[in-house]
Amino acid sequence: MIPSAEAAARPLRAPLKGARPCRAAPSGHGKRTRRALLLGLLTIGAPLSAQDTLVIRAANVLDGRGGTQHNVDIVVVGSRIVRIAPRGPVPAGARLVDLGDRTVLPGLIDAHVHPVWYFNRKNRLHTSDDGDTPAQSALAAAANAYATLMAGFTTIQSVGSRSDADLRDWIGTQGLPGPRMLTSLDPLTDRSLSPDSLRALVRQRKAQGADLIKIFASASIREGGQQTMSDSQLVAMCGEAKALGLRTLVHAHSAAAVRAATLAGCTEVEHGIFVTQEVLSLMAAHATYFDPQCALVFRNYLDNRSRYLGIGNYTDSGFAAMERALPLAAADIRMALATPRLKVVYGTDAVAGADGHNAEDLICRVERAGEAPMHAIMAATSLNAEAMGLGTLIGAIAPGLEADIIAVDGDPIRDITALRRVSFVMKSGRIVRY
To answer: CA separation (Å) from 61 to 67, 97, 268?
Structure first.
């Protein structure tokens, strides 16, 4: 069962200008004093001005690129990290945040989420005809984005829905608390269209403001996962996107669909539950990113079966297919990790019920697929940033990058479940959880 949101929740405290230095109480999850301060959605984490300096004092740092540092001060000015140095005097006028013995990491990145999916007040998956108003749906999406941010994920990639654009833009420009967000808008799914028509749709998504293109090359796992788009259709869509400077993410379960997407020059393949070693090696040779899921999406569906059953392809046979996929998923990841030069990124396919639990697949990848904890953390930080074309902006704790910084109780290198215990979140220099 996925841990409850209540169990993971921590009180929030925004930094106040002119406040005295913040220091952690005695170490240990149960020893720090906790105070609940209810903050309005639009008032959390007042931004630092260009002149403001904040010093994060960290005993243990995982930099997101495989390095570690100890007993350092991370100096943040405005939204950026400007310096990492051994502990020393705090600059005049700077604010100090002492994180005690917690482990500090870059903000985590989830390459595949669906924050506009939610359970309605009838305790069922929201559909367009269930009576919910647009305002209710927008509030649900905002709540999902907030839960994801509080779980330490400061960047997400939503693939996809047209309504993602409003959520992305209100987070980015209107102060709505949530992760930095990229979106594909509506995915391309119509297998009946000609290559030229599909190229036109790619251009349309670009004009509509899509950050990337999402393509369905195969059926759902609940319907067998066979290839649905032809090789020539995939070549048309991925080629057009590349010409426009857009990345492509391809939903593909069957080995044939993964192979076709790879040969078509698509950027990244999602899922790949029926992938073979031959196809994984082909992906490595073509520098195609691979984003397999370990357990969260399947467990979430199975745990919430009553909320999905009877809607679309959420049938008894569909749930049986997802149960069969669970052991295959971890085995696929193990095989992918053993494939030389294959870039295995991190995305959960979080749908309704999973928001805020995005770290569960990192735990699964370590515990069930045998991935080294540091390697898994790099997949969810610097490698994801590289795959998204954001490697010079986010994904690591390093001078010049955005100050997306989180802290967890414990050491995730020794115990990967520490990633469930996020107790500090900063996004672009704003403290949103402390």
So the answer is: 8, 14, 30
SS3 220: coil
**What pLDDT was estimated at residue 30?**
42
Joined together, the tokens standing for residue 378 give 């790099």
% helix, strand, coil for the chain, step of 5:
30, 25, 45
Name residue, tokens 């349309």. Answer: 204
Q: State which residues form the domain around 50.
A: 5-106+393-433
Residues 94 and 82 sit within 8 Å (Cβ to Cβ): no
What DSSP character marks residue 2? Answer: P
Hey, which bits of 63-184 come out as E strands?
68-77, 80-86, 95-98, 103-106, 108-113, 153-158, 180-183
- The verdict on 360 and 280 lying in the same domain is yes
CATH number of the domain encompassing residue 53: 2.30.40.10
pTM here is: 0.89
Using one digit for the tens of pLDDT, what is the confidence trace for 213-262?
A: 999 999 999 999 999 999 999 999 999 999 999 999 999 999 999 999 99
- Phi/psi of residue 5, nearest 5 degrees: -65, -35
